[in-house]
């Protein structure tokens, strides 16, 4: 990626990514974030994982209006074939790929949010103190434990013992924040695993018994004695908001000129 020529330095970077079938939540995410990030010096990157031409046009217009800083086309050809988003959702391996790319281009504070995940303004107000408190890695708990959502093949791959991790609560792949000065090594390992199908999606794994990117992230964090044992509500994180996207867009567009 040739980086945009810009002398602006940003305090942190927000990253999301989606394809054609998630355009509605992406648009509502951008509208919502415009207000939330008002007054913050933030870079917002949207990864295009397969939007239609007309959707891309809308996003470029929103970029001109300041709703996003960068629209990036994800370069599928640079990565393994099994990442193909149309087959088993690409085993969600593209998420560590995007985070690793942005960490390379813009090291510092990186906030990954799924397009259906919205955060309160306080999340960013407290970003620096939270990153200090949580050792450079913030992700709230999600349901279940590693025993439920990590396929045993992961431990085979790493030559590790599942008994050490079965009780660990899962991190939440919908909302992950890194301070690369402290946790770049976790991003590196996460990405490395994502490029090997036997690691991120071992034989016999599926969405029934494994949570791909999230399972590996939880494992790597736990290996570094970092645990996601706090609730998203405490941080002001709201997941699965995509179901409200149409209503949100219609309300927003009735009061804002787009």
Explain what this protein looks like in three dimensions:
By secondary structure, the protein is α/β, with parallel strands linked by helices. It has one domain: Spore Coat Polysaccharide Biosynthesis Protein SpsA, Chain A. The protein has twelve helices and ten strands. Strands 3-2-1-4-9-6 form a six-stranded mixed β-sheet, sandwiched between helices. Strands 5-10 form a two-stranded antiparallel ribbon. The protein has a two-stranded antiparallel ribbon with strand order 7-8. Strand 1, helix 1 and strand 2 form a beta-alpha-beta unit. Helix 3 (94-105) runs antiparallel to helix 8. The radius of gyration is 18 Å and the shape is globular. It starts with 11 loop residues before the first strand and ends with a helix.
Report strand %.
15-25%
Tally of helical segments: 12
Order of helices and strands: EHEHEHEEHHEEHHEEHHHHEH
Ends apart, CA distance between termini = 29 Å
How many structural domains does the protein architecture include? 1
Low-confidence stretches: none
Strand order of the largest sheet: 3-2-1-4-9-6
What is the CATH homology-level superfamily?
Answer: Spore Coat Polysaccharide Biosynthesis Protein SpsA, Chain A
Mean pLDDT: 93
- Give the CA-based shape: globular
Helix content: 40-55%
- Largest β-sheet summary: 6 strands, mixed
